[in-house]
Design brief:
The chain is α/β, with parallel strands linked by helices. It contains 19 helices and 16 strands. About 45% of the residues lie in helices and about 15% in strands. The strands form five sheets. It has a five-stranded parallel sheet, with helices on both faces.
Length: about 500
């Protein structure tokens, strides 16, 4: 119940206002003078009145004096002033001192009711907005803590060197290219750079350039104007605009077409974008971080990636090592993921057994850190003992990867059709990856170190169907329909 103090030296008016406000559902106290009102205000500053309705002209302490005192001691309390001697000058002074409203006597009671209701609604909205601001500040603090470079897991010399580099480059505005195999944590590094930079209060916007065809990618990046294409029913901002004062992360930039590379080059050079179907150039203040799992320098030599764009994004290169290149990080990463998932699942696992850890350390991890996380999550879900045992690990991890390929690599005396043999091998790997990920093609592609476009091409060729990402919370790429796995495959998948 909102609490209101009525300060009025005329008893009949004071009683009338108190009666009217109590009928409206407020808890009301009264004061016959400014001094008495001041005493009630100071009596319990930890539980202030929501509103004070005060006459300006009272013996001793005036309503304006009471208002000034409240602004200093209880700034959250709203004040409405009344007077029978109203003038423009008095009204302006009252509002300048912080009064929310000014009411002249004689007044209509319905008018006072409306003013009080409006005041209470404004206080309610202000309180909700402040609560949302506190919540957003808390969420932002969590993000900044989560992605601080010193919170990333890694004890190897390679990772320590990367942490040191992040600390040095985060404060700059330079464009960064993060390279490395799929699953090595490139986006995590990009987020760490953002949340340790001067742009941390801005947005971090991420997009996978290989997951969208050119026309949709252009619309996503630069926005579009109403009517510029079928379905464009309204103007839409692109991700470059959404990332203003922040960072945009262009993942798999090596998958972009030559036409899109030209448009990205122009943005990096001019720091301007033009929406699809628009003519106006829009300035964009955004830091660009890119990533790729391909050898862009080789692509430049083969004329598959623009040399000028490469040098624009290659200002500060960061190479993420594969997990097999830093095996000393496996125990720390495994323990980190164990702690994460035992908390999520509420399972009191004490740790990972030595035998299970030996399996993890001897495996080659083609899917890198992402695959390790998936394996630990599975182990936590399946384990019934106090510590993770080897039996809770996938078969290929228990065997150190020796069962993964299942292929005799000895060259037959009569020779071999290598292209056909490699085709069969690719198909078998893709089937196994689809089985492991429950048919989620995006995750299967990551395990195999393939781009999504390449995986989708061969999946269609072999007659493999699955979910492009819907079951795991990932966005289904445009133009693709979610299916199910396992499904009846074409002849090539048999």
């Amino acid at each position: 119940m909102n609490r209101i103090l009525v300060a009025e030296d005329e008893k009949s008016m004071r009683d009338l206002l108190a009666l009217m406000l109590r009928k409206e559902g407020y808890a009301v106290e009264t004061a016959e003078s400014g001094s008495k009102a001041l005493e009630l205000v100071d009596r319990n500053p930890g539980d202030p009145f929501d509103l004070i309705v005060s006459d300006i002209s009272m013996p001793g302490l005036s309503g304006l004096d009471l208002l000034r005192h409240c602004r200093r001691t209880v700034p959250g309390t709203a004040v409405i002033l009344m007077t029978a001697f109203g003038s423009k000058e008095v009204a302006i002074e009252a509002l300048n001192e912080g009064a929310l409203y000014y009411v002249e006597k004689p007044f209509d009671l319905d008018e006072v009711k409306a003013v009080v209701r409006k005041t209470m609604e404004q206080k309610r909205l202000a309180a909700e907005n402040e609560a949302l601001r506190d919540q957003n500040r808390g969420l932002r603090a969590q993000l900044q803590g989560k992605y601080r470079f010193d919170g990333l897991v890694g004890r190897s010399s390679k990772m320590r060197a990367i942490f040191d580099l992040i600390e040095r480059v985060a404060a700059t505005g330079s464009t960064i290219l993060i390279s490395g195999e799929s699953g090595t944590g490139k986006e995590l590094i990009a987020r760490a750079i953002h949340y340790n930079s001067g742009r941390k209060d801005g947005a971090f916007v991420s997009i996978n350039c290989g997951a969208l065809p050119d026309d949709l990618l252009e619309s996503e990046l630069f926005g579009h104007m109403k009517g510029s294409f079928t379905g464009a029913t309204a103007n839409k901002k692109g991700l470059f605009e959404a990332a203003a004062q922040g960072t945009i992360f262009l993942d798999e930039i090596g998958e972009t077409s030559p036409a899109m590379q030209i448009k990205l080059l122009r943005v990096l050079q001019e720091r301007k974008i033009r929406r699809v179907g628009g003519t106006e150039e829009i300035d964009v203040d955004v830091r660009v971080i890119t990533a790729t799992n391909q050898d862009l320098e080789q692509m430049v030599r083969e004329k598959r990636f623009r040399e000028d764009l490469f040098y624009r994004i290659h200002v500060i290169p960061i190479r993420m090592p594969a997990l097999r290149e830093k095996p000393e990080d496996i125990p720390a990463l495994a323990e980190h993921f164990l702690d994460k998932y035992r908390r999520q699942m509420g399972k009191p696992l004490a740790g990972i057994s030595k035998a299970a850890m030996d399996c993890l350390e001897s495996y080659r991890w083609p899917g890198n850190v992402r695959e390790l996380e998936n394996v630990v999550e599975r182990a936590v879900a399946l384990e019934s003992a106090d510590v993770v045992q080897p039996e809770s690990l996938p078969r290929e991890v228990r065997s150190g990867g020796s069962e993964r390929a299942g292929v005799d690599i000895a060259l037959p005396d009569g020779g071999v059709d290598l292209e056909h043999h490699l085709e069969e091998l690719r198909q078998r790997f893709m089937v196994e990856a689809m089985e492991r990920t429950g048919g989620v093609q995006t995750r299967a592609a990551e395990i195999l170190g393939m781009t999504f476009r390449s995986f989708r091409y061969f999946a269609k060729k072999y007659g493999l169907t699955g979910r492009e990402g819907a079951s795991s919370g990932e966005a289904v790429p445009p133009g693709e329909e979610a299916g199910s796995w396992p499904a009846t495959a074409g002849e090539g998948a048999r």
